[in-house]
Amino acid sequence: GTAGQPDAGPSLTGSGYALYSGFWPGGGAASPTCPNPLTGVSISGPSSGNTEQMLTFTASPDPADATTPITYTWSTDGLVSGQGTATATYRWNTAGTKTVQVTASNCGGSANASHSIEITSAAEHKIYLPFTVRNS
């Protein structure tokens, strides 16, 4: 071929294989592609819970077959475990409306999602023991 120009590859029609040829202006191999870019993410999990309760949330990429690896970054308020993974566990000490947020990213970009949950104070449990007085 001509200097600085890619050579045409052989035709592999019907073989089930594809041959890609390309170059960077400065030389080197062609850049990898992202066959299934991430277009969205959603969070599934409970919509209510109690203080001090461990609650699990799961991020699902859209499309489901988005190119891996996919990285997940969860909001940190109440986060107990799961940073960097598709599943995170949260626990809150105070009552109120809480928001769980996640950002998912792959070779094609990133997407954000949020999920609200209402946390109520766990009922206090009092244990009353019998009080006995013994005469001596």
Describe the structure.
The chain is mostly beta strands and 136 residues long. It has a domain at 40-120: Immunoglobulins (Immunoglobulin-like, Sandwich), CATH 2.60.40. The chain has no helices and eight strands. Strands 1-3-6-5 form a four-stranded antiparallel beta sheet, with no helix packed on it. The protein has a four-stranded mixed beta sheet with strand order 2-8-7-4, with no helix packed on it. A hairpin with a 5-residue loop joins β5 (79-81) and β6. It is rod-shaped and about 90 Å long. The N and C termini lie far apart (112 Å). The model is unreliable at 17-26 (pLDDT under 50).
How are the strands of the largest sheet arranged? 1-3-6-5
Which structural class is indicated by helix and strand composition? Answer: mainly beta
Number of strands: 8
Termini separation: 112 Å
Mean pLDDT metric: 83
Regions with little confidence, pLDDT below 50 for 5+ residues: 17-26
CATH level-3 fold name of the domain at 40-120: Immunoglobulin-like
Global morphology? rod-shaped
Strand fraction equals 35-45%
State the fourth-level CATH superfamily of the domain at 40-120. Answer: Immunoglobulins
H-E order: EEEEEEEE
Helicity level, as a percent range? under 10%
Largest sheet: 4 strands, antiparallel
